[in-house]
From TrEMBL:
This is Diguanylate cyclase (GGDEF)-like protein. The lineage of its organism: Bacteria, Pseudomonadati, Pseudomonadota, Alphaproteobacteria, Hyphomicrobiales. Residues 24-273 form the EAL domain. Coiled coil: none annotated.
Length: 282
């Protein structure tokens, strides 16, 4: 009996490993071609003013509908793209596509996630500026979301790139704020416009008083430093009310909207469907 249980546990573990390895292999084999073939898609999650009603921007989030294996999430392929040197073409594709789509949404900010590896490229700033110029959109509408990893390795180079980007009007947001370990130092040194409070803080807010205190402190810290403070992962109206009362500037989360295809953003903004744009008509 014990032997049998042991064997079952082992095969359960094996199945999990098989599944993970199989997915990794799919990503390794197919991601390069998918980028080249324009198979990736962008979904956009609206960002709202604290009242939860007015959309001020959208965050582009990459999606991969694999022809055989269904939707593969960025959590499953961004890290592999980074390992394989594919994050550069992927990142350029994302920024180009997001800037193109953003033209339909005048006045909205377009937030794009950027990997630390992209940021470390010598020509990162000129690559970003070229894409923005080609798309012919105002650089002040573009916001790059970076994590602490950006400044970990080569802080001097990161600082220089960030200053250059800001000098050209591009905005910078520190994503997943609070999950790293030296966030406070980075906030003082680097030229961020915004911090995005990681959703793990909100998740535990209802269960522990300490989390609420932390969120409270972060909002006040950000405000005191003159930064825009955004909360991500807002799922309940209790969280909304709490954050609004604290003076959090912007909100993003399933309570308001999940990430959706571009044509859904059109609808939210009251933009008529464009018949000539493929995929726009449901
Ligand atoms: P992130 O930039 O912190 O994005 C927020 C993630 O939280 C997104 O997951 C979003 O769908 C999810 N989310 C938003 N609101 C809620 C909520 O209320 N509840 C819950 N449970 N989740 C919520 P997603 O799209 O799977 O992306 C995961 C991560 O993958 C992103 O985290 C980002 O780090 C990375 N990523 C996505 N797109 C790109 C990209 O184009 N380039 C790079 N380098 N990374 C990307
Ligand atoms: Mg982000
Ligand atoms: Mg985040
Ligand atoms: Mg993240």
């Amino acid at each position: 009996q014990a032997k049998n249980g042991g064997r079952n546990r082992y095969s359960f573990f094996e199945r999990q490993m098989d599944e993970a390895l199989r997915l990794r292999k799919v990503v390794e084999d197919d991601l390069r071609a998918a980028i080249l073939a324009d198979e990736l898609q962008l979904h956009y999650q609206p960002q709202y003013k604290a009242n939860g009603e007015e959309i001020v921007g959208v965050e582009a989030l990459v999606r991969w509908p694999h022809p055989q294996h269904g939707w593969i999430s960025p959590q499953q392929f961004i890290a592999i793209a980074e390992e394989r040197g594919l994050i550069i073409p992927l990142g350029e594709w994302v920024l180009r596509k997001a800037c193109e789509d953003a033209k339909r949404w005048p006045g909205l900010r377009i937030a794009v996630n950027v990997s630390p590896i992209q940021f470390r490229q010598r020509d990162f700033v000129s690559s970003v500026m070229n894409i923005i110029e080609e798309a012919d959109i105002d650089p002040t509408r573009v916001e790059l979301e970076v994590t602490e990893g950006v400044v970990m390795d080569d802080a001097d180079a990161a600082e220089e790139a960030m200053m250059e980007l800001r000098a050209r009007g591009v905005r910078l947001a520190l994503d997943d704020f609070g999950t790293g370990y030296s966030s406070l130092i980075y906030l003082r040194r680097f030229a961020f416009d915004k911090i995005k409070i990681d959703r793990s803080f909100l998740e535990s807010m209802e269960t522990t008083g300490e989390s609420a205190i932390l969120v409270h402190s972060v909002v006040h810290l950000g405000r005191a430093l003159g930064l825009t403070v955004t909360a991500e992962g807002v799922e309940t109206s209790e969280q909304h009310r709490f954050l609004q009362a604290l003076g959090c500037h912007e909100l993003q989360g399933y309570l308001f909207s999940k990430p959706v295809p571009a044509h859904e953003i059109d609808k939210m903004l009251g933009i008529a469907p464009d018949e000539s744009r493929s995929g726009a008509v449901a």
